[in-house]
Task: structure prediction
Amino acid sequence: MRRIMLLTLLSLALPTVALATSQSYTASTGPLNFTASFSSKNHFQTSSISVRNPWELELVGVNGVTITLLITSLVRCASQNVMNCPFLREIEARGPHIPGLFTDGVSGMINRGPNDGASSLLASLMGTLATNPMVLPGSNLTMTSISICSNTNNVCSGTAGRVSLLAPNGSGTIHVISPMQTPGTLGLFGTGLFGLAGLVRRKLKLGT
Result:
């Protein structure tokens, strides 16, 4: 009977210590700072987007959150109103609620909207972040209603190689699920069970 009790305590302790808890955070640009946000000029130009010449899209929120997307591969989407264009490469994010500088791989789909003569519309982007020891499944990136200046008669302010984004819409959000870095209540509970199991084992040896 005592041996059964010891085995039961150990069976409770081992899986309890092994349980991994996770934490998540979400950071959104909210309304964009259109003075600071930009796109590289090769937006939607599938034939010119590559590792050496990525499409860079930087969303800067008025709240201090910055999301930078580097796309090195984009299939389709060279024409307006094209849905489900696969893309891939890398994301960087920083700002409030983001621990340090976040970087990760990302892949997903872009839906391109209509041109209006002054801009090209990235209607929506849905990306899955690459899973690694610090990023768990379920982490993602979304962007909506990004109007990229494309009017050749417009200065499309910005530095060389870049064009501005046009008001009033546009936003980006990342949602990251990561493992907890500190032991939680369950881990401490498991440690307590180990101690109790050791006490029972000593009592069994003493025959009491």
